[in-house]
Specification:
The chain is an alpha+beta fold. It folds into two domains: 34 residues; 112 residues, Rieske Iron-sulfur Protein (3-layer Sandwich). It contains one helix and twelve strands.
């Protein structure tokens, strides 16, 4: 009975195939999250200060850094831009509150597929609003200063 669905060896084979398919489907999401450098940083007077010399991941135009500010409810993504500037974003999707993943020049919500560009603007819904952005400036000592007390 080669096609008998109750055959234990056939069930085992089907289960292993299903597990392999699930792993293949979720591997890109896991690698995108795992590759993003994460730093715990203590804000000073509501501001983060990140010395560019200590964060080589921000030296390339596609560089990204995940910062976990002490006492802040959510992480902050710091993204290098092609023009040499920097953007700090909330990674919380404006559709249903999932955390978006940085995938090259896009930020993608793993829950419902909303897609944002590296400036946080919506490229594809269901999200209708851009990601929250924090003001960023680079001071004379090449330190990024991110104001967590307001969004733009």
């Amino acid at each position: 009975m080669m096609n008998d669905p109750t055959d234990p060896s056939r069930r085992r084979l089907l289960r292993r195939c299903a597990e392999a398919c699930a792993l293949a489907a979720f591997a890109p999401l896991a690698s995108a999250c795992a590759s993003l450098a994460t730093w715990n940083v203590r804000p000073i007077d509501g501001r983060l200060e990140l010395a560019l010399a200590q964060h080589p991941e921000l030296t390339s135009p596609s560089g990204a850094l995940r910062v976990l500010p002490t006492g802040h409810p959510d992480p902050v993504y710091v993204l290098a831009q092609t023009d040499g500037s920097f953007i700090a974003l909330s990674p919380i999707c404006t559709h249903r509150g999932c955390t978006v993943d940085v995938q090259g020049d896009r930020l993608i919500c793993p829950c419902h597929g909303s897609t944002y560009d590296r400036a946080g603007l919506v490229l594809r819904g269901p999200a209708e609003r851009a990601l929250a952005r924090y003001p960023v400036r680079v001071n004379s000592e090449r330190v990024l200063v991110i104001d967590l007390q307001r969004t733009i």
